[in-house]
Amino acid sequence: MTASTLDVPAPTGTVGEPVLEIENLSVDYGYTDDATHVLRDVSLTLHRGEVLGLAGESGCGKSTLAYAATRLLPPPGLITSGSVHFTGRDGQRTDVLRQSDAELRASRWQDTAIVFQGAMNSLNPVYRIGRQIADGILAHRPGMRRKEAWDQAASLLEMVGINADRLRDFPHQLSGGMRQRVMIAMALALDPQVLIMDEPTTALDVVMQRQIVEEIADLRERLGFSVVFITHDVSLLIEIADRIAIMYAGDIVEDAGAQDVYRRPRHPYSAALLHSFPPLRGERRELTGIPGSPPDMQKMPPGCPFAPRCAHVTDVCRQVRPVLGPTALADRGGREAERSVACHLHDADLEGIDGTLPADLAR
Amino acid sequence: MRFAVRRTIFYLITAWAAVTINFLIPRLMPGDPVTALMGRMQGRIDSNAEESIRVLFGLDTGASVWQQYVDYWGLLLRGDLGLSFTFFPTPVSEIVQQALPWTIGLVGVATIISFTLGTGIGVAIGWRRGTWADALLPITTFFSAVPYFWLGLIAITVFSVTLGWFPSSGSYDRGLVPTWSWEFVGSVIYYGFLPALTVVLSSIAGWILGMRNMLVTVSSEDYVTVAHAKGLPERRVMVGYAARNAILPQVSNFALSLGFVVGGTLIMEMVFSYQGIGYTLFQAVNTQDYPLMQGCFLVITLAVLGANIIADFVYAALDPRARQEG
Amino acid sequence: MAQDTTFTEEQAAPERAVEHDVDDPRRAKRFLFLRNGKALTGLGILLFFGILAVVGPWIAPYDPNQVSADLLQPPSWSHWLGTDHTGRDILSQIVVGTRGVLVVGLIAGVSATVLGVIVGVTAGFIGGMGDETLSALSNVFLVIPQLPLIIIIAGQLPTAGGVTVALVIGITGWAWGARVMRAQTLSLRKRDFVEAARANGERTWRLVLAEVLPNLTAIIAAGFVGTVTFAVMSQVTLAFIGITPVSDWNWGTILFWAQNNLALQRGAWWWFVPAGLCIALLGMALTLVNFGIDEFVNPRLRSTGMNARLLRRRRIRPRIGFTPVLRTPPDGRPDVGTTARTTRKERS
C-alpha cells in the first residue's frame, strides 16, 4: 500500500490488485441518434489503496466518468457500452453495469461511496445530519437499531473533527467546510473500499481546502480505502495523488504516476495544463494558458480533439484519433513502461512522425 | 421566532387591508344604489339599524372620511355588519354565521382532499417521468381548464338528472331536523358528495401539475443523487428526499392560491344551491343586497386568511430553515 | 492559490450541467420554443378562436338574439347546435360570443400584466423599504380571494359591461405576476451585465428598459397567459351568475340562460355542453402555451428526447439514480464516431 502525505512526495507506481476496472466505457447525453458522445471508450483502473487523480478542464468528462461508473449519471445520460468491474475484499469480481437494481442498491455505499461537488446541495435540507448519516447505515444493516446507527454517526463525526452534538443540527446550521466534512464522514460510514471525490474542495476557501485534503490523506492512511479524486486543480492532485489520469474532451489522454506527470508530461495537453498552474512547491516558472477552447462535444472533429490547440500538431493528428498506448520512451524501462499516453507523437510507425519527441515532452 | 413575528405582522396588514377595501368599495363606486334601496325600505328600518348602514356605506356625507373610517371599525369590532335587505330584518352577521360552517365543511374538506390526493398523484407522476404516467398529464390539463361551475352542471346532469344517484341541490334532507344524529350526518354527507366531488375534480389538476413539476425539479438536486448513492430503498429516496423537499413550495403555493381556489369553489355552491357563504353571496348579488354582499366578502377573506395561517404553521413544521431564520 | 489562467474561470460552472440553452443565441431559443409541441398546439387553438372572434358576427348562421318557433330543438341540419327555450340558435350565440370572451381576456391580461410588471420590477429594482411595501401589497392582493372581490365590485357597479369587467379583473389580478417578476428582477439585478451597465453610469430607467425587461420576456409572457386564463374564467363565471348584462353574448351568458331555464332538468345538453367545451378548449390552449413557456424557462421540465415509444424500442428507462445501460444495440455497437478502434496496447 502506498502512503501519501503532503510533505513527502508519494512513492508512485506501486501496483496493488485492481479494485475498480473501467473498460471501454462510452456514455451519451441524449437517447436519440443525435445524442452527444461525452465519453468514448474510456478505460481506467483503480488499484487497492491508491489515490487516483482525474484532472482536466471543465466539461472534459471527468465527473461524467465517475458518475457513469457508479450509474448515478442523471438523465439524459446513457451508458452505451463498456464494463465496470468491482473487486470486493473477498476477491469476487462483479460488473456494476450488469447488476440489477436491487444488487446495485445493496452494493452502493458499501463498496463505493461518493463525496459530491458542492457540499451546499449534497445534504437534504430538511433532515438532521445525524439522521442522514444514520439512514445510510441502516439501509445496509437491517438488523441494527436506530440508536446504534446514531452512535456510529457520532463517532464518524468526531473522526472528521466535528463535535458529536452537531448530529442534531440541520445542514443550514453548518458552515461550508463542516458540511463537506459531514459528507466525508457519511461516505466513510460503511467502510467503503472506493471513495470517489468529485471536486470536494472547489467551493471552499484555501485554508479549508488544505484542511480537507489533509484530512482525506490522513483518513486514507488509517482506513486504507482507494480514492478517485476529481478536480481541475492539477497542482492539488500532484500533492495528494499517487497516479493521475488527464482527460480531454471525453478521452483519457495521459495516465501515469503523479510525479511523472508533473515532472515529465508526455502529452502536449498535460504539459500545457501543468504550465497553466502555479506549482505549490519547487522552482518558480512562467505560467501560460492554453490557447483556444475545448471542442464542442456535439460536433467533434475527426482526429485528435486537441489538435486545434496543440503546438506540435501534424497532418495525421487532424485525421486519425489517437488511442491510449505506451510512450515513445517506454524502452527506458521502469516506471516509464507503466505510463500510457494518447498522442500520435509517440507512435513512430505512423507516417509523418519521426519518433523524436519535442524537448518538453521528452524530459 | 422572527418568522412568526413577520408572518403575524403580514396577517395583521392583510386583515386591515381587507377591511379597508371593504370600506372603500362602496365609497368609490359611481352612483348610489344603497340610498335608492333605503328609500324603498323607508319606515321599516329602525333608526339604529339605519345608522349602521349609513356608516357601512358612507351615506354620512357630513362626517369626514376619517370619522367614517373610525365609526366603521367601531361597528365591525362590535360584530355589526348591518341588516340584510333580502332577509329583512335579519342582521348580516347572523346570516353569515349560519352559512360559514357549511362552507368550511364542504369547501374545506374538498380542498384538503384535493390537495392531499393531487400532491400524491403529482409525486407518482413526477417520479415515473418518461413512462405511461405522463399520459395522465393531458387529462389533468383538461380538467384544470374546465370552469368549476360547468363541471358542476355536467355532474348534476349525469349523476342526478340522468342517473338519479345524488340530489341536485341543497345540503341535507329538508325532512330531517338538524341534530348530531347519524341520520342527519349521513344526509349531509350524501348531499355534499356531488359538490365535493366536483370541487375535487376541478381543483386537483393544479395540485398534480404543481407537485409534478416541483418533484421533477427537485429530483435533479444533488441530495437526491446522494440518497441514491447511499443505496437507500427507492421509496425512501422518493418520499424522504425528493417529495419531502418538493412539498415545501407546494405548501406555500397552497397558501397563496387559496384565495383563488376558494373563489372558484364558492361558485360550486351556487350551482348546487348549497347553503354556504358562496350561495349567500350569489343571492345577495342577485337581490342587490349590498350589506350582505360586503359581509360575505369580509368573512370569506378572513376565512382564507385563517387558512393561510394554518398553512404557515404547517410550512414552519416542515421546513427547519423557516423555523430558525426569517 | 492564485490561478490567473484562462480556463479556471469556469471552475464554478458545474460540469454536469449538460443543457446548452444558456449560451445559445436568442434566436435559437425562440426557435426552440416554437419547436415545442405543446406550445404549438396551444397557439393553433388560440389562432382558431382568434379568427372566430374577428369574423364571428359575419359567419354566424343566425342573429343570436333572433327568436324563432323552433323552441328547445336538439341539433339538426338547420340548427347545428340546436336552439334554446325561445328558439334562438346556439351555434350563433357561441360564434358571436367568442369575441366578447377574447376581448375581455386580452384587456384584462394586458392591464394586469402591465401593473404586475411595474410593481414587480420596481420592487425588485429599488429594494429596501419600497420593496418591502410593494411586496406586502402584492401578497395582500394574493391572499384576498379575487373572485368574490370581483363579484362585489362588479355587483355594485351600475353597469358592468365587458370592458369594465376586464378592467376590474386587471386591477385585482396583477399580484401573482408582480411576485414572480420581483423575484426574477432581484436575481437579474445581481448579474454581471446589469452591474456593468450600472457601473457605466446608465440611467436607471434605461437600465430597466434595455437590460432588465428583455430578460424577463419569458416570465412576462407566462404571467400574461396565466392572467388571460384567469380573466376568461372570471368573466365567464360572472356572466354565468348573471352579474354582467345578459344581453352581451359570451359563453358564460349562454350557460346563464341554460341554468336559469332548467336546461339540465330538461336534458337539453346541447345548450350547455358546447359552450363549456369551448371554454375548456380555450383554457387548455392557454395552459399548453404556458407549459411551453415553463419548459422553455426551466430546462429540467423539458422532455426532449423522452419520446416514450423511442425509449421503449431502445429499452431505455430514464431514471435518476440508475443510469440506463444499453444492453443489446440493434445493429452492433452504436456509432460513436470512430468505429473499430483497437487500443495500441492490443496491437503491440
Automatic annotation (TrEMBL), chain A:
Keywords: ATP-binding, Cell membrane, Membrane, Nucleotide-binding, Transport
Keyword Calcium (UniProt): no
Secretion signal, residue range per the UniProt entry: none
Domain ABC transporter, residue spans: 20-274
Bilayer topology annotation: Peripheral membrane protein
CDD domains xrefs: ABC_NikE_OppD_transporters
Compartments, record wording: Cell membrane
Top-rank taxon: Bacteria
GO terms of molecular function: ATP binding
Entry's family note: Belongs to the ABC transporter superfamily.
Protein name, per record: ABC transporter ATP-binding protein
Organism: Isoptericola chiayiensis
UniProtKB/TrEMBL annotation, chain B:
Family to which this protein belongs: Belongs to the binding-protein-dependent transport system permease family.
Keywords noted in UniProt: Membrane, Transmembrane, Transmembrane helix, Transport
Provenance organism: Isoptericola chiayiensis
The keyword Membrane appears for this protein: yes
Matches recorded under InterPro entries: MetI-like, MetI-like_sf
Name of the protein this chain belongs to: ABC transporter permease
CDD domains: TM_PBP2
Residue span(s) of domain ABC transmembrane type-1: 100-311
UniProt superkingdom: Bacteria
Main location: membrane
Topology within the bilayer: Multi-pass membrane protein
Pfam families in the record: BPD_transp_1
Highest classification ranks of the organism: Bacteria, Bacillati, Actinomycetota, Actinomycetes, Micrococcales
Signal peptide from the UniProt entry: none
Compartments where located: Cell membrane; Membrane
Transmembrane segments: 9-29, 99-127, 148-168, 188-209, 254-277, 297-318
TrEMBL record, chain C:
Topological type in the membrane: Multi-pass membrane protein
Compartment list: Cell membrane
Gene3D superfamilies in the cross-refs: MetI-like
InterPro entries with a match to the protein in the record: BP-dependent_transpt_permease, MetI-like, MetI-like_sf, OppC_N
Region annotation (Disordered) ranges: 1-21, 322-348
Keywords linked to the UniProt accession: Cell membrane, Membrane, Transmembrane, Transmembrane helix, Transport
CDD domains for the chain: TM_PBP2
Residue spans crossing the bilayer: 39-60, 101-127, 134-154, 160-181, 216-243, 269-293
Protein name listed in UniProt: ABC transporter permease
Organism: Isoptericola chiayiensis
